[in-house]
Amino acid sequence: MFKGGEAETVPANSNTGAGELPHPISPPGGQPGAGKTAPTKASRGKVAHVDAALGFVVIDFTFSALPPAGLRFGVFRNGLRVGEITTTKMVDEAFQVADINKGDIRMGDDVRLD
């Protein structure tokens, strides 16, 4: 649905389809993988799993850049620092394992770079 090189939005009640999106659709940056960037101070995640007996957590970085192994992160609950972890390995494109260095870490805690 192009008119002169510009995307056209089709109303949801039109005869051409229910709720079509403007075209073309591309990820941020215009290329696949363009949304992932090198870790920065903005790298943030959430604790998705805690295994206190073995001393590790799994961090969900779905909405942030996945950091490399060996970085130290603070763990926060309700804005207060409750622990510290060090990333060890990537589980997949969004999750990473980290060793618990110290603290009482629980599922749902916020994780951000020190």
Layout: helices, strands, pairs:
Elements: E1 2-3, E2 6-7, E3 44-51, E4 56-60, E5 72-77, E6 80-90, E7 95-103, E8 110-113
Antiparallel strand pairs: 1-2, 3-4, 3-8, 4-7, 5-6, 5-8, 6-7
Count of the domains: 2
Please tell me what the overall shape is: globular
Sheet-strand content, in percent, reads 35-45%
Unreliable runs, pLDDT <50, ≥5 residues? 21-27, 29-41
The Cα radius of gyration reads 20 Å
Mean pLDDT: 77
The description of the largest β-sheet is: 6 strands, antiparallel, barrel
Structural notes for this entry:
Helices cover 0% and strands 41% of the residues. With 114 residues, the chain is mainly β. A hairpin with a 4-residue loop joins strand 6 and strand 7 (95-103). The model is unreliable at 21-27 and 29-41 (pLDDT under 50). The protein has two domains: 1-30, no CATH class; 44-113, Thrombin, subunit H (Beta Barrel), CATH 2.40.10. The strands form two sheets. It has a six-stranded antiparallel beta barrel. Strands 1-2 form a two-stranded antiparallel ribbon. The chain contains no helices and eight strands. It has strands at 2-3, 6-7, 44-51, 56-60, 72-77, 80-90, 95-103, 110-113.
Keywords, please?
114 residues; mainly beta; two-stranded antiparallel sheet; 41% strand
Briefly summarize what is shown.
The chain has 114 residues and is mainly β.
